[in-house]
Amino acid sequence: MSERLAKVLSVGTLAAWSAGLLYLYFSERVIAFLHPSFRPLVLISGLVLAVLAGLYYILVKPASCCGGHDHEGHHHDHDDHAHSHGGLTLGRWMAFIVVLLPMLSALAFSPDQFGANTLKNRLPIEDVSLLPNRMGEMSSEWLPLPGMEGEAMGSLVDYLPKSEDGFVQIEVVDLMHGAEDETLRGELTDLPVELIGQSMPASTNNPKQDRFRLNRLFMMCCAADARPVGILIERDADVEPPPGEWVKIKGVASYLFEGGKYIPIIRAQKIEPTTAPREMMLF
Fold this sequence. Notes:
20% strand, 37% helix, single chain, alpha/beta
């Protein structure tokens, strides 16, 4: 294989990885795979690889075969010389394919969201103590706006966003924290709430078979460590959403005391299919 072709393969490998990483970042597909704090590294890596590809192309000059050598001093057989170059050709091509194949496969075949099988097979988080404490983050949302320090705060949920029809927009993990915090549980009980998630059958705490679980995947670092967290939805209708379907729930939050602990549950008033949110993972 000529040195020029070897250079093209090396530059092509760097450029392909750069293009793949930049595509993942700017197409926002990276949202499905990485925690927000790690996403800028994808952009940085893509730019660095692009610079390296450019520098390699500019600075590395291919040498002509046997250039500058004293041919009289060569004692190797020309057939062996051709054979060695043929082996090098195969090795270079194999290296190029092996390095490039993971990126191409990820771009072509990796789904942008997890379905019912992932929610079923990954060990769910049912104990809120296993989650990072989001109470500080929630409290910061509930604090009065600047200039209101001298006013009474009122209810904590007054500072949460609401839908046009007055339902408080909340996440499943916030309701899970209410099971452990008495003050928060008092604020959330009997509260009209709106939340979205993926439907899954309820295998426990479902004696009348009129409940299903609303799940979200909780990510610590990347998609590899994402695990489902969820709450019970009590439905009036006989029809249960298909497993893995994204649904929007509007209903009243409550807490049951079963098995020696509080369990969050939504008594649904309205269940409707919805599209997956831009941020499908919780953090």
